[in-house]
Write a structure and sequence with these properties.
Chain lengths: 459, 459
Amino acid sequence: MERTVTVGSLIALYRAEGIEPVLNLGDVVISGWVRTNRPSGQLAFLELHDGTHFLSLQLVYTKENQGFDMMSRLKTGAAIVAHGTLRASPSDKQPFELAVKSIELVGDVAEDYPLQKKRASFEFLREQAYLRPRANTFQAVYRVRSVLAHAIHSFFQERGFVYVHTPIITGNDAEGAGQLFRVATEGKDPFTDFFGKEAHLTVSGQLHGEAFALAFKDIYTFGPTFRAEHSNTPRHASEFWMIEPEMAFCDLKGDMEIIEASLKHAIKTVLEKCPDEIAFFDKFIAQGLKEKLEHVLNSPFRHMTYTEAIAALEKAVKEGVSFENKDIFWGMDLQSEHERYLCEKIALGPLFLTDYPKEIKAFYMKENPDGKTVAAVDLLVPGEGELVGGSQREDNPEKLKAKMGSLKDMDWYWNLRRYGGCPHAGFGIGFDRLLMYVTGMQNIRDVQLFPRTSNALKY
Amino acid sequence: MERTVTVGSLIALYRAEGIEPVLNLGDVVISGWVRTNRPSGQLAFLELHDGTHFLSLQLVYTKENQGFDMMSRLKTGAAIVAHGTLRASPSDKQPFELAVKSIELVGDVAEDYPLQKKRASFEFLREQAYLRPRANTFQAVYRVRSVLAHAIHSFFQERGFVYVHTPIITGNDAEGAGQLFRVATEGKDPFTDFFGKEAHLTVSGQLHGEAFALAFKDIYTFGPTFRAEHSNTPRHASEFWMIEPEMAFCDLKGDMEIIEASLKHAIKTVLEKCPDEIAFFDKFIAQGLKEKLEHVLNSPFRHMTYTEAIAALEKAVKEGVSFENKDIFWGMDLQSEHERYLCEKIALGPLFLTDYPKEIKAFYMKENPDGKTVAAVDLLVPGEGELVGGSQREDNPEKLKAKMGSLKDMDWYWNLRRYGGCPHAGFGIGFDRLLMYVTGMQNIRDVQLFPRTSNALKY
């Protein structure tokens, strides 16, 4: 009786219990795709990848095998089913290998297969977005993506946060966070026919999330958000996933505690569950990545107010630090270079920057007693800049109304303050940017599956 | 030193370790919202709900309390912070209650608060979508929604499935599953300006998911999908979440095994984690719900081919069963009444219906050797009809090409069969419909947060 195995199940067994149980499996069958196939004289080595683990399994077959000729013609990318027994490998590249009894070709590869070359550039692979998950780097990226997403779900679920699906199509444009996509149908009045009013794709689930926090205390969203911006940068996409937790009876201090704890949990989980992927990134994508992530885990995040940051930047300019923008003044919007200086040169690690001037922050943020700043926070991280943005929300109905101006369709949001409102706070993590930070990948197009940017909608 | 507690933490402690540890907590502080407040003579009872559990905590205060007058004026919906000690309750409605030392009013309730009445109709509450999560039924619905979502994630993650975020904005309309929403921007050519081509909201992540299954073996999506249909029924919405697993080296039999296992895991988790919510639904929403769910858990799902189903329906008509549509013939599309008859009267439980005529199923489904049917499956459940739809996918390039017709922008999907294709299969679960099934709620508008249907885009 053959046992069906996967590379993932074999490596898990080996790492948990050593090689003996692997060698005792008897006859096994495994299916997957050919990575490389090197027949040479009597002995031939075929690297089988099945997608269940970052690593591959070495298959060994010989002239003695019936079907040796067919086997030796198997091409990179071909789908096969292999039968055999596991044995200790003489090479120290892997602990065990499969001694092949037979191989069945399930799906051949056409001559024009684009992934023939061993090392294709990221730019080339972007054009092959439907095939690139087969490439080493993207096997690692997308597996970490999955593990990271689940780590975030588990963190919040274990703490009793309620996962809410805030709407994607929305009638509000109140957050004012950039350009909106419009939703339309066919017909005479494509923009209003269906819903009876203009509809857009959401830029944030926060406002709807607040309504649920005021019923469930702690909630979080995890879903797609959209920006119709023509920003052609390595950090911007038109469609990206966000996590937006919101906590009732919570102030900015509590907000920062959850930000720090959730990020540390997420990073810890990835380090534990994806050691091979992180080692790969550390070696080939971003040297020092593992140390950076471990440093984040082991140090408390530092805190600084915006006002302190401005003073530090003014001092830096005086001391000759050459920012592109040296015009530092209280009230300015910090540029990425300033944010990076603050966390990389001063905090030497993740830094919470708090209490920004109210003029440069959103209307829903709670005004501080000084009347000039709001209880906002950005988390800045080395190499990246802003990773998380959050705030305590304005819970005073009069102050909120003054800042909202016309309530338009937003009276419900205002009413939340009149119907048992309370101090509440929340934050947003751009999931794709977090994944860039955790993997060291430098372009958001290379951590998303099928990235959408202006003039890019292949697939 | 006061300890901060929640209703959820207290009930968890009580159920795990009994009442003693609860009574030994000493001084505690708890925040939440007033559900009811009944001052009567010397003794007054205030029901505090904090959203962390389906149940509430009874607060008891007396004339002896400083601030008794303020406390007795607290209104339904007000946000409060209460201090006191926990003691055994003399009533058998709850095991413990809070003897109040003081209460702080954090957020009052305006006179026009719409949730004054104890029992508001679902229709009324739909109009108050931002407040209804505070009502009992919706506390239960949305908590089960969150638990159910996480149960699904956990099931697939524990089995090594990779979670993939397939795109929301898409250039393909190949699935042809109903009407599409268009994505536009402002400007001269709103439908093509941004992406350089027409863009739509996705109806399914399956096709993109297949590309990832052929790299990772087992993957699943969990995200929003859209239909621009004016179906004004209790089961249709324009925006809803779907789970779409896809498995390489898997046939229809393997597909059905995963469907059955994943649904049973999801239902089991909800029964274990939400006993109070399920008891509530069983009592007030759908009598017999708990028994129904336990029955599903404990019985193997039955199997029947479409051809067998037609024979069974013909027999039923002969025997006098009065369907609205009695014109039963091989090749017809089954109506909901037929589907329900098959699972409710014949299978007496969940039923896999397989091998449908190819003419009534999608182009990507694998043709069976008979040349007439495809390896498709629908899971039918009592009371609901179709809950899951799946199939093995056509992996023969020539057969697929013949059915796809013009490849348009879909050559990549076809290429998946030419570049190491293999037998693969998958399915789709409508998450909102699954939630209806698990809670017994009868209208999709009452299990979604802010439902979007034609002419409905409030909030």
